[in-house]
Design goal:
The chain is an alpha+beta fold. 56% of the residues lie in helices and 13% in strands.
């Protein structure tokens, strides 16, 4: 078997080649990382999450900013998504939020690792669309479950 080096994927044999992530998929992954990870997120951590170099990450952040994403931060300081314009604000009442948190927590505890990760991701996406007061309630409820 011949060993081939593919960009962004490391060194793989020809039979185990993984596809390189598309740019839109990478930008989506970057937005999701900015939603989910504790703020501020370092460029090094974001580069790991999106499987690119820090140089590429800086270009991706500028692309997202040019597209309207409100990303605060700078190299050496870290980054934070201050407003997620991709989704409109949600209007859940307290009991609906509790139902979401309990249901997703149940999936995290009982589901396989992929479902648990999907539950965490879904909760982060929902929380990102909520006003700050409701985000704090979800954070509190998540720690109580």
């Amino acid at each position: 078997m011949v060993s081939i080096c593919y960009p962004l994927c490391g060194s793989h044999t020809a039979s185990s080649r993984q596809e390189v992530m598309s740019r839109p998929e990478r930008l989506f992954r970057l937005l999701n990382a900015l939603r989910v990870l504790p703020k501020p997120v370092t460029a090094a951590r974001l580069a790991i999450e999106t499987e690119v170099s820090e140089r590429t990450l800086y270009r991706d952040i500028e692309s997202l900013r040019a597209g309207g994403a409100l990303i605060d931060g700078a190299p050496g300081l870290g980054y934070a998504l201050t407003e997620d314009s991709a989704l409109p604000p949600q209007t859940f009442d307290r009991i609906e939020m509790e139902a979401l948190v309990v249901g997703l927590s149940d999936v995290r505890q009982r589901g396989d690792p992929r479902l648990a990760q999907a539950a965490d991701s879904a909760l982060a996406k929902i929380a990102a669309t909520l006003p700050k007061r409701l985000q704090r309630q979800i954070l509190h409820a998540t720690h109580m479950v």
